């Protein structure tokens, strides 16, 4: 995977999706290792994904606002910035899917025994709860971002001479 210097273009959501996928694979192998407890690997996975998502949202100029369309799978990203308006671009709205298990389609039960099915159901419930908590956090961050923009607009309007 190529590294990206800090002074280059901001990370895009596609970069974030690729990083999440690589992170899932690496930490999946970590959790399968005999010397690492599964709970420890899951905590590492959760923290790393939250941090990665926070960084992608913070650094990406292509995601100034985030609107949740589906509570499990699809995000709608809108970028209607001043530069886009000045260049008379159309609203470049696009869909982006974050995949399992951060937010996405919950895995189906493929176990044949009842204990395997119960464990899978428990993991699915846990992942769904985790996804809902992350969505609530994203909504909170979006509201804070929008409030900050509104306050900035009010301050700019007060500073302008009549």
Count of helical stretches = 4
Count the E strands.
3
What sequence of helices (H) and strands (E) makes up the elements? HHEEHEH
Give the C-alpha Rg: 20 Å
Major β-sheet profile: 3 strands, antiparallel
Uncertain residue segments: 1-13, 61-113
Distance between the termini: 54 Å
Helical content stands at 55-70%
Order of strands across the main sheet: 1-2-3
Strand content: 5-15%
Mean pLDDT: 57
Morphology: elongated
In total, the number of domains comes to 1
Class by SSE composition: mainly alpha
Coiled coil: 121-160
Keywords: Coiled coil
Short account of what is shown:
With 162 residues, the protein is mainly α.
What does this structure look like?
- The relative contact order is 0.11.
- The chain has a three-stranded antiparallel sheet.
- Helices cover 57% and strands 8% of the residues.
- It is elongated.
- It contains four helices and three strands, in the order ααββαβα.
- α1 runs antiparallel to α2.
- With 162 residues, the chain is mainly alpha-helical.
- It has one domain.
- A hairpin with a 5-residue loop joins β1 and β2 (74-78).
- It starts with 12 loop residues before the first helix and ends with a helix.
- Residues 1-13 and 61-113 have low confidence and may be disordered.
- Residues 121-160 form a coiled coil.
- Keywords: Coiled coil.
Task: Compile the SSE list and pairings.
Layout: H1 13-32, H2 38-59, E1 65-68, E2 74-78, H3 82-86, E3 94-97, H4 114-159
Antiparallel strand pairs: 1-2, 2-3
